[in-house]
Amino acid sequence: MPPEKAGGIIFDMDGVLTDSEWFIAEAGRLMFQETHGAAVTHEDFLPFVGLGENRFLGGVAEKYGIAFDLERDKARTYAIYTEIIKGKLKPLPGAVEFVRRCRELGFKTALATSTDYVKMTASLEAIGLSEAGGGFFDATVNGLEVERRKPFPDIFLEAARRIGAAPECCWVVEDSTGGIAAAKAAGMRCLALLTTFPEAEVKQAGPDIIARDLSCIAPGQLRDAAIKPALTKL
Asked: Looking at the structure, do residues 53 and 13 belong to the same domain, yes or no?
């Protein structure tokens, strides 16, 4: 069956719905200290933000010449992460309300995140958007389910396929320049948020709309927006 000509909204997670970067860096720092006796810093993780935990942790291990066991060390990092976010990880402004309103308006919704399933589910539960908590997403795609990560379009194309929406009828909500590039490569429109990168960098990536965060825009504005060459800032 061909994809429906129906509207779909595909959300990235980190920097869009919540900001978990400090927590996952702290979990990684504690893991390296506990498992390898290595004193790494939060700054060591910065070059690998948004690339998935394999690279996020593996890149730091390479920097310090640490004998890194991917599956063991990643599992321990996630265990620490799940504990330290309890009662502390919060949704970004307007995020939960925006997703709920999308559902009320009849949009198909998907979550497409480069992170692994374990971190995805723990984060969604912490911010009140878990799948068990009300079916906020028609589909989810995590970083383990695609071979090529952003800026390749694979994760967004798979999300569109899972919700039965044609790519040209989908909006992607992103905060990273790589994610914006992936959305455009997928033939989708992109709402970019200024939660992570400077506005000049975000604008250069070529989104259709820029907003400070999801409290500044209503889903109906995406439904009613025509594809325009000019950038709109909200």
From this structure: no
Alpha-carbon distance 11 to 160, whole Å?
A: 11
Interior/surface letters 50-65, b for 16+ CB within 10 angstroms, e for the rest:
bbbbbbbbbbbbeeee
Domain that holds residue 181: 8-19+90-233
Contacts of 187 (CB under 8 A, 6+ apart): 153, 167, 168
Q: Beta strands of the chain (E only): which ranges?
A: 8-11, 108-112, 139-141, 170-174, 189-193, 209-211, 232-233
Token pair listed for 181 = 């590039």
pTM: 0.88
Tokens at residue 75, please? Answer: 């599992």
Structure confidence by residue, pLDDT tens digits, 196-209: 889 999 999 999 99
Write the pLDDT tens digit of every residue in 85-113.
Answer: 999 999 999 999 999 999 999 999 999 99
58 located within any domain = yes
12 is catalytic: yes
Does any domain span residue 173?
Answer: yes
Known catalytic residue at 19: no
Residue 34 domain-assigned (yes or no): yes
Q: Is the domain of 161 the same as that of 48? A: no
Contacts (Cβ under 8 Å, ≥6 apart) of 221: 209, 234
Residue 1 lies in a domain: no
Three-state secondary structure of 145-167: HCCCCCCCCHHHHHHHHHHCECH
Q: How far apart are CA 55 and CA 70, in angstroms?
A: 10
